[in-house]
Amino acid sequence: MTDATADTSPPRRQKNPVLDALYRNKFSWIGIGLIVTIVLLAIFAPLVAPYDPLQQSILSRLQPPSVDHWFGTDSYGRDVLSRLLYGARISLAIGFLSVLAAMIVGSTLGILAGYIGGVFDQLVMGLVDVMLSFPTLLLGLMVAAMLGASFENLIIAIAITETAPFARVARAPTIAVKRREYIEAGRSLGFTPFRIMGVHILPNILSDIVVVGSLWMASAIRTEAALAFIGLGVRPPTPTWGGMIREGFDNILNGWWLIVFPSLSILFTVLALNILGDALRDAIDPKTRSEG
């Protein structure tokens, strides 16, 4: 005779420690909330924007914030709020695509350098050190000046400036992971180096790469705004946050809103990405996760 009946309830799903730590971090929700809000406003800009961002009205030029124009108008009579919403599309797209390209190229170089080692590793890391010796803005300025001002060239210029950090971040854990026993077992079974790097090494270092990507996306948005401010961004009249600051600089004394609102948009976006990146880093780090 048994003392207790068998437990037939389904087994509980084990919590993901990273997601659980991210869920318990209150600051992460601030970053996630800001990013989601900004992305949604950018996606639905045609529905949210009260005016056409390219519509000019000389009679309405340089109007301060009012009921009709919440963020005022610029020197051409265009609605600043509408241009901010459409400009978010350009800034976020450039930031995301440039970081994605830098992540793919840089991580690939870093994994190859860490796995192959030897002369190839020295050559790749030497190139990375040279690229890191230049300030990000200066390197982006040189590349953008050579390629010319356009949406595609701006993505390429910013991606080149951010390739080196991803290569360095991917190389170090690759060297550590390739010495583990299951990697040696894979080699003994005849797995190709590309299979080992893509199937067994990449998933183990992907979290570090994603954290760096969230942090460097904030840097990409700042770089785009800086390049647009000096005239190497997307060509007018396409609205971008950096371009709006540059256009408002000429009217800074009698049109403070032309600079304040685009600057605040960049500030909140960069702040949200940094908060999210720090939260991801703390959630992935086992020591920080255990302390929380």
- What is the CATH third-level topology name? MetI-like fold
Number of domains: 1
Distance between the termini: 46 Å
Broad shape: elongated
Please bin the fraction of helical residues: over 70%
Q: Which secondary-structure class do the elements indicate? A: mainly alpha
Give the biggest sheet.
none
Uncertain spans, ≥5 residues at pLDDT below 50? 1-7
- H-E string: HHHHHHHHHHHH
Mean pLDDT: 82
What is the CATH superfamily classification?
MetI-like
Q: What percent of residues are in strands?
A: under 5%
Number of strand segments: 0
Radius of gyration: 24 Å
Subcellular location: Cell membrane
InterPro entries: BP-dependent_transpt_permease, MetI-like, MetI-like_sf, OppC_N
Domain ABC transmembrane type-1: 88-277
Main location: membrane
Overview of this structure, please?
With 292 residues, the chain is mainly alpha-helical. It has one domain: MetI-like (MetI-like fold, Orthogonal Bundle), CATH 1.10.3720. The protein is built from 12 helices and no strands. It has helices spanning 17-24, 26-43, 45-48, 80-116, 118-132, 136-147, 151-177, 181-188, 193-229, 241-249, 257-284, 286-291. It is elongated, with a radius of gyration of 24 Å. The model is unreliable at 1-7 (pLDDT under 50).
